[in-house]
Amino acid sequence: MPEVRLVGPNGEQVGIVRIEDALRLAVESDLDLVEVAPTAKPPVCKLMDFGKFKYEAAVKAREARKNQTNTILKEVRFRLKIDTHDYETKVGHALRFLGAGDKVKAMIQFRGREQQRPEMGIRLLEKFAADVAEVGLVESTPRIDGRNMVMVVGPLKNKAEARREQQQQQQKSGGRDSAKRKIRTDAPDETEGQNVAAAMDDDARAKLEQARNVAEDEA
């Protein structure tokens, strides 16, 4: 008589039972009998709501796909005798790529006799690795690939982390902008250069005008 090792709906071990008894328990519990380890001896079956199980598995798979981070391999190319400005531009690109969670393949293209000086290429790539160390770590040390020398640098933060950090920075920036706008709109209506006489009542204004006339007559 075939037997199975039966697991209850909450993960409890029921023990080894006949398949007929396992099916009867499934019917009585209004659950499904699902084989979860067919190669085990005896096979392992579990009592569960299979429809609910499939739904929860689909939700988990959907969440996993949403949170999945697809790292892209970006490429920056150098000449062995690159000038300072171009080098700094390449480093800037690499910092941006790594900061966004992507990998960077740094490639030196050798020309003519430059292939006989691989140590110069290694020194340049080592300098590059040091200049991007704040956001990247060398994953593949410099190696010769035909007429080129390549090195791969991986990001210290994955794309999900980089995205969260960017959103946090945008939120902080938005808060600062709101505060600045509030400061501007809270400014008093009266300016420092406003005429003091305009704020006086009619009696005070008349007295001021009389004083002016007296002063002009005496002059």
Automatic annotation (TrEMBL):
Keyword Cytoplasm: yes
Name under which the protein is recorded: Translation initiation factor IF-3
UniProt-listed InterPro entries: T_IF-3_C_sf, T_IF-3_N_sf, Translation_initiation_fac_3, Translation_initiation_fac_3_C, Translation_initiation_fac_3_N
Chain ranges of the Translation initiation factor 3 C-terminal domain: 73-155
Similarity comment: Belongs to the IF-3 family.
UniProt keyword annotations, A-Z: Cytoplasm, Initiation factor, Protein biosynthesis
Primary role: IF-3 binds to the 30S ribosomal subunit and shifts the equilibrium between 70S ribosomes and their 50S and 30S subunits in favor of the free subunits, thus enhancing the availability of 30S subunits on which protein synthesis initiation begins.
Localization annotation: Cytoplasm
Segments of skewed composition (Basic and acidic residues): 174-187
Annotated segments matching region Disordered: 159-219
Domain Translation initiation factor 3 N-terminal: 2-64
Subunit structure, as described in the record: Monomer.
PANTHER family xref list: TRANSLATION INITIATION FACTOR IF-3, TRANSLATION INITIATION FACTOR IF-3, MITOCHONDRIAL
